[in-house]
């Protein structure tokens, strides 16, 4: 059984991150798995799936970019920390 945590995921993303691009100053590349891990450090991992996080990221306007980190090229979201 899956529980709906979209609102909580949205609030966590909005309070912690701002969508960015690779050229945004101080932007950090994060994979979907890394963002999911951040979310599930607060919300119950048993009920929050990567697909849930992906859907909220898309709704909030976060975009993916091909990027290379330590010789691995993958899709990353670029985020800036929300300083509010």
Overview of this structure, please?
The chain is an alpha+beta fold and about 80 residues long. About 35% of the residues lie in helices and about 25% in strands. It is built from three helices and four strands. Strands 1, 2, 3 and 4 form a four-stranded antiparallel β-sheet that branches. Helix 1 crosses helix 3.
Give the strand content.
Answer: 25-35%
Roughly what is the average pLDDT, rounded to an integer?
A: 88
Radius of gyration: 13 Å
Integer tally of domains? 1
Following the backbone from N to C, one meets helices and strands in this order, namely HEEHHEE
Q: Got a strand count?
A: 4
Please summarize the sheet with the most strands.
4 strands, antiparallel
Please give the share of residues in helix. 25-40%
Total helix count? 3
Brief digest:
The chain has helices spanning about 5-15, 30-40, 50-60; strands at about 15-20, 30, 65-70, 70-80. The chain has about 80 residues and is of the alpha+beta class.
Please give the structural blueprint.
Blueprint: H1 6-16, E1 17-19, E2 28-30, H2 32-40, H3 50-59, E3 64-69, E4 72-81
Antiparallel strand pairs: 1-4, 2-4, 3-4
Helix pairs in contact: 1-3
List descriptors.
84 residues, alpha+beta, 4-stranded antiparallel sheet, 36% helix
């Amino acid at each position: 059984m899956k529980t709906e945590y979209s609102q909580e995921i949205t609030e966590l993303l909005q309070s912690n991150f701002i969508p960015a691009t690779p050229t945004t100053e101080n932007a950090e590349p994060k994979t979907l798995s890394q963002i999911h891990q951040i979310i599930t450090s607060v919300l119950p991992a048993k009920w929050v799936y990567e697909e849930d996080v992906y859907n909220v990221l898309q709704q909030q306007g976060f975009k993916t970019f091909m990027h290379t980190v330590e010789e691995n090229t993958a899709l990353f979201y670029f985020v800036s920390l929300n300083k509010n």
